[in-house]
Amino acid sequence: MRRGAGSMRGGAKNKVEKERRSYYNDKVPEKGNIQEDNEMKKFFAMMLAVLLLVGCFAACTKNNGQQGDAETPEPVDPGTQNTPEPAQNTPAPESGAVTVVIVVAGQFGDRSFYDSSKEGGDRLAKDYENVTVKYIECNNENHDVQMRNAADMGNIVVCVGWEFYDIETIAPEYPDVDFIWIDNATEAPVDNVLNITYAQNEGSFLAGYIAAAMSKTGVVGAVGGEDNMTINDFIVGFKQGAAYFNEATKVEVNYTNTYDDPAKGKDCAKVLHDRGADVIFQIASKAGDGVFEAAQEGGFYAIGVDSDQKYINDAVIICSMKKEVGNSIYDAIAEIVSGDNSKLGTTWVADMSNGYVGIGYGEEGSTQQVPDDVKAQVEQLQAKIVSGEIKVDTTR
Fold first, then answer.
1. How far is it, in rounded angstroms, from Cα 393 to Cα 297?
2. N or C: which end of the chain has fewer CB within 10 A?
3. Pairing of strands 357-360, 317-323
4. Close Cβ partners of 275 (under 8 Å, ≥ 6 residues apart)
5. What span, in angstroms and rounded, lies between the C-alpha atoms of 203 and 323?
6. How far apart are CA 392 and CA 374, in angstroms?
């Protein structure tokens, strides 16, 4: 501003000086020069005073505008004053930047539940330039510690697994962080928590129907990872679907009591096969890989879970009950990033009606064991479930 004012001042002075000299040469006698010089000095002084007043007024106006913006003060170097550290070090979005931390109860590599969540996170990072996605594996321990670590790192925390029970008490400690709990729900609404549960019982109904339709022994089986409400929600739907095809169908069930050991899954599948099961539904995450191995060695069929797992071994995996965890995470975070927080504080049921639960038969060109007429029947059953004509049993 000084440089601009100085240029104005110099330009005005030069113009007046030229006029003054012309006036003196043409009109004024030599002896009047001293008096006219004094008058011009007074004129210049008055102009300088006016310019200074204008500059002061502009500066004051600018300062007043800054004081009015109380919600966005200038940043202060924390080293210059003794300000207490905040209760948590949650990074605030800068220029729309968002950090998402996906923390899984177990570990990646299961090719189903946890890996599906990572697929959703990877797609977010690819599609949104302002979104950074980080991952934490709990390895089935220290869920609370890792939940807090995630909240310290990100703006949005996705807890993948029913094991994160203490989210009800931890999330309120981080009011500026949005939490998403996958596969379970808080007992009461929490303002900054979106619960996403899945109607796995509906998809499992269709898996049970297919298993019974494909069985030659009239006995089918299910290997669960653990005897709990979530796993048993698959199983009740599976049993109901098998009975819907044929009430005489027998369903054998056992549990690996681990989600990470394929050897346990293989042993469980062998036990069920010895009981006559020739189609076995794996509901045990990575431990379910052992079910596929047993099917390959024992000459029976298997059904995958959570993701379309037919690519793993399309000779024995006839279909998969898909629970679109990755897609649901992607869609929920996309809404939050766009500014829609309306689902926070609620439980969102991802079910067959909104496309997050269903049956997958593998990619185009993969071996198909399920006949087209059975697939057509499955589509009809799906429509009846969506319409409410068929009510699927549930443990929830």
1. 33
2. N
3. antiparallel
4. 219, 221, 252
5. 8
6. 19
pTM: 0.74
Instruction: Give the pLDDT confidence of 183-213 residue by residue, as tens digits.
Output: 999 999 999 999 999 999 999 999 999 999 9
Tokens of residue 130, six digits: 């302002």
From residue 33, give the alpha-carbon distance in Å to each of 14, 26, 37, 45. 18, 13, 6, 18
**Separation in Å, CA 209 to CA 137, 253, 277, 330, 353:** 35, 16, 14, 30, 19
* Average confidence (pLDDT) over 12-27: 37
pLDDT score of 209: 98
Over the range 211-236, which residues count as b (16 or more CB within 10 Å of their CB) and which as e? bbbbbeeebbbbbbbbeeebbbbbbb
Nearest to 226 by CA among 193, 175, 268, 194: 268
Reported as a single tens digit per residue, the pLDDT across 144-160 is 999 999 999 999 999 99
301-306 vs 156-160, strand pairing mode: unpaired
- Residue 124 · residue 334 · CB < 8 Å: yes
Domains of the chain: 98-198 (3.40.50.2300), 200-323+364-387 (3.40.50.2300)
Q: Are 101 and 150 within 8 A, CB to CB?
A: yes
- Tell whether the model's pLDDT for residue 161 goes beyond 50: yes
Cα distance between residue 306 and residue 234, in whole Å = 11
Beta strands in 279-330 (DSSP E): 279-283, 301-306, 317-323
Measure the CA–CA gap between 180 and 117, rounded to whole angstroms.
12
For 269-298, what is each residue's pLDDT tens digit?
999 999 999 999 999 999 999 999 999 999
**H or E element at residue 103:** strand 98-104
**Pair 330, 116: CB distance under 8 Å:** no
Alpha helices in 165-216 (DSSP H): 167-170, 200-214
On whether the CB atoms of residues 370 and 318 are closer than 8 A, the answer is yes
Here the tokens at position 47 are 């102009």
pLDDT at 396: 86
